[in-house]
Design brief:
Elements (H helix, E strand, L loop, with lengths): L15 E4 L2 E8 L4 E8 L2 H8 L9 E4 L3 H6 L8 H4 L3 H9 L16 H13 L11 H7 L5 H13 L2 H12 L13 H9 L7 H14 L4 H6 L4 H21 L12 H11 L3 E4 L4 E4 L5 E4 L4 H4 L6 E9 L3 E8 L2 H7 L4 E3 L5 E3 L1 H20 L6 H10 L3
Parallel strand pairs: 1-4, 3-8, 7-9
Antiparallel strand pairs: 2-3, 5-6, 5-8, 6-7, 8-9, 10-11
Helix pairs in contact: 4-6, 5-16, 6-7, 7-8, 7-13, 8-10, 8-12
């Protein structure tokens, strides 16, 4: 059983369900400051929903790969609300944009952990969405108003400054459409699919690899036949093209920004992504292993990464996500220059005499304390009475 088996979808002929008792779930871990895709036990409600897929249109049975005692004593009643297990960066930025100061006292339907709120304040400060006092900045308002995760929005704002907004918008659109589904992997044709994928590889960047795919897809008339011939997911790429139209419209019409094009200098695109994802950076510790700069988590490049398959081992990389399975893998990886990390990191990184990056752990801790202290000070000042009502109106559409 997978998460699809927990929906109300009815498929004719399902007679047997095998429930492992686990699910893959993206969970924000404050200890490492990033999302991690991890295996977690399901809840009893989810287990019952999985069992309900068998026997809908015919007699059926569910085999659970765990004991009844485990079901009763170890599984929780219902799944943890998403806001309590996910990054709340977008939520915090929305609240800041409508004037909410004391996040800890805000009346959430399901309050996220205090740790997550504090970590979000720091991450938003790092990408310049908040100032030193925890107030939203001009760029922060744009990021809050952009229909993508804050790091992606930060990337696009930086790309417009660098003059590679056209290319960055394409990559972000593919990522938002689910980059994992862009490359098809038909069962029994894995070697052919790998060979087709390698034609698009950029040896130093998965981001540029996705850009190569999208640009060639558009150049070939967004043809389903071309996508099928190259073992690409036409629907995912078509969805990315639709998302890109929305993103470009927001950047140019609403934000009055000029996108610009890198004209083949795709290093600029990697530099733009560094501005959004420098907190997700890692340094090579051996020929195959890396260590994240922010918190020292050992990790490896994902086996499907273009960077790994090119046989190079860049000293520093950024990545979109950390996946925790039998090993810790980083996905959607790009090689970056140390000076890029230093220039955008608000003093978080510097170099020592041996030319190795140094992470200023205390800077983040001090900044977190400063932002929280500033928030407490602002709380004592008169607050906008309608801030909570305004959020409710935004959520309910004014109903």
């Amino acid at each position: 059983a997978t998460n699809i088996a927990e929906t109300s979808l009815t498929i004719d002929g399902i007679r047997y369900v095998i429930d492992s008792g686990y699910m893959k779930c993206k969970v924000f871990k404050p200890s490492i400051g990033m999302n991690a895709l991890t295996l977690y036990p399901v809840s009893r409600a989810q287990a019952n929903q999985r069992a309900g897929r068998a026997g809908r249109t015919a007699e059926g049975v569910c085999y659970r790969l765990y004991t009844e005692h485990q079901y009763v004593t170890e599984l929780i009643d219902a799944p943890v609300p998403e806001i309590q297990r996910s990054s709340v960066d977008s939520v915090v930025l929305l609240l800041k944009s409508i004037g909410v100061v004391d996040l800890a006292q805000f009346d959430f339907l399901d309050a996220p952990p205090q740790q997550n709120l504090e970590a979000s304040l720091c991450r938003l400060w790092l990408i310049r969405a908040l100032d030193d006092a925890g107030r939203i900045t001009e760029d922060g308002r744009r990021i809050a108003d952009f229909p993508a995760d804050p790091p992606m929005a930060r990337t696009l704002l930086e790309a417009c400054k660098l003059g590679c907004g056209e290319e960055a918008a394409s990559v972000v659109s593919v990522l938002c459409s689910d980059s994992r589904s862009v490359f098809a992997m038909p069962k029994g044709r894995e070697e052919s699919a790998k060979a087709a994928r390698e034609k698009f590889y950029a040896p130093d960047s998965d981001h540029i690899t996705l850009l190569n795919v999208f640009e060639q897809y558009v150049a070939n008339g967004m043809s389903r036949a071309w996508a099928d011939d190259h073992m690409l997911n036409h629907l995912a790429l078509k969805r990315a093209a639709d998302i890109r139209v929305q993103f470009v419209d927001r950047l140019t019409r609403d934000f009055k920004l000029t996108l610009g094009s890198c004209d083949g200098n795709k290093d600029m695109v990697r530099e733009a992504f560094t501005a959004g994802y420098f907190a997700n950076s890692a340094r090579r510790s051996s020929m195959t292993e890396y260590t994240t700069l922010m918190n020292g988590v050992p990790c490896e490049l994902h086996p499907l990464s273009a960077v790994l398959n090119a046989g190079i081992a860049p000293d520093y990389v950024i990545f979109n996500e950390l996946t925790m399975t039998t090993r810790e893998y980083v996905t959607v990886v790009s090689a970056v220059e140390p000076q890029w990390l230093i220039s955008v990191s608000r003093g978080l990184f510097s170099t020592r005499d041996d030319n190795m990056m140094k992470h200023h752990v205390n800077l983040v801790r001090e900044q977190r304390k400063a932002i929280l202290a500033a928030a407490e000070e602002q709380q004592r000042a008169p607050q906008p009475a309608a801030a909570g009502d305004l959020l409710q109106n935004q959520v309910t559409g004014g109903a």
